[in-house]
Request: fold
Amino acid sequence: MLVARTNHTSTIGIIGGVLTLASFQKDFGYTKKQATKTQSLAVSLQQAGAFAACLIIWPLLSKFGRKYTLALSSFIFIVGVMIETINTHSVPAFYVGRVIAGLGLGSATVIVPMYSSEVSLERNSAGEHKS
Reply:
C-alpha cells in the first residue's frame, strides 16, 4: 500500500516543480502565463485517469488475480511516464501520458491494499500470529 501511495503522492508533488522549469517550458512551448493552466490540467488529468482506473480494474482483478493485475498496472504506469518524459515538444502528448500514468496509479491504489491483506500473516484478536 505504501508503494502505491508513495508513487501517487510523488507524481503529483514533483510535477509542480517540473512544470516551472524554464527548460520544460521551452521544450513544450508554453509561457509563464499558461503555466497555471498547464499545471492544473497535468494534475487533474492524472486524477481523472486514477479515478477511472479504480472503477475499471475490478473485472480484471476477478479474472487474472491480484499479482498479475498489479504487474499490469505497473506496466501501464511506466508507459504513461515514458510518454510524459519523451521530449515530444507536445503538451497534448504530455497530457495523454498523465492520463495513462493515472490509470496505472489508480489501479495500483485499488490492488495493493487487497494484495497486502491477502499475503499478510493472519493474527488473532490479541495481535499475535496464528499458527
